[in-house]
Specification:
- By secondary structure, this protein is of the alpha/beta class.
- It has one domain.
- Helices cover 30% and strands 14% of the residues.
- It has 8 helices and 14 strands.
- A 6-stranded mixed beta sheet has the order 1-3-2-4-5-6, sandwiched between helices. A 4-stranded mixed beta sheet has the order 7-14-13-10, with no helix packed on it.
- The radius of gyration is 19 Å and the shape is globular.
- The protein starts with a helix and ends with a helix.
Amino acid sequence: MARKFLYFIAFCVFTLIIALAALAFFQEEATQAAFVPRADFVEQEKVEQSAYAVPDMWFSRPGTVGGNPALWTPEGFEPVAEPKAAVFYVHPTSFVSFATTQLWNAPLDDEESQERARIFLRSQASVFNGAGEIWAPRYRQAVLGAFLTDKPEGQQAIDAAYQDVKTAFEEFIAEIPEDRPIILAGHSQGALHLTSLLREFVKNQPLADRIVAAYIIGWPVSVENDLEALGLPACDDTEQTGCVISWQSYGEPADPSMVIRAYDSTIGFDGNPRKGSTMLCTNPLTGKMGGEAPASANLGTLVPNETLTDGKIVPAAVPAHCDDRGFLLIGDPPELGAYVLPGENYHVYDYPLFWANARADADRRVDAFLAR
């Protein structure tokens, strides 16, 4: 299992990094030509909620047979025997395809993207297996190129992917006990879809009372323009519940200009431009908004060995502090592999950098929720 997890670096990340790095090194036209599908968007057949009653539509859920990637843990950690919460996790983009494939959304029978998604579960969703049972749906995710274009087809692909996530979430809510606390977790595209779930199912809804926390990791959330629309405040205390957690990791010296250009061109959930607004930055070493913490506060970074045959938890490897714009800076980071995005962007490693702290954070918030 450990070897399979490390393919997260050696196998699935490689293509993703090449694609995203093109934003920094190629002209916009060349980037779109390489990665943005040239075909028209074709509306997908709707997946009925009953489809998600079938275990095969989930990478992870209670009773998963044949190996559950979300139950992977490094040495010294074990999944909880009696789950205290239900975790709904949405994986990031694993369908990295070139324009010539002509697909805006990943087919569920695409073996490469499905295997990559399982690998993401080992490195990310595993954070939460100490707090609860993990439900991670398969969904027809938007292709990477959908995020690299202003063509309407890109947004259509993202919206279509969300419809699958929404349907899976409705089945998740229908199946878990009515009094079970809920953790929402995701990364990148998965985190984006969680923001839609929060606006549709949580804001001003009874379900808000059951949310332990929403981990919107690797996707920018505007403090001024987005938080109110999500229906939950930012987490600003280590035992606070019913709140939002978010960070985007950068080594130093950081150059987040690529992200800032894209972010500043968007409209917030309140209908106003996000330009110049602060992104939510939760310091994973403190569990609070903003601030800084030394490496000694890091309970453990998930680090692979040189041959990528094993991984271990290394305490005190990475400090963290939030800058004025809302990026999480990690100083001179450890060697986690060669797959760092331009500008010292550690997007790929958002969870592994703080794996043990994020795990402790989820456990602590669930206990605080149950003690209310």
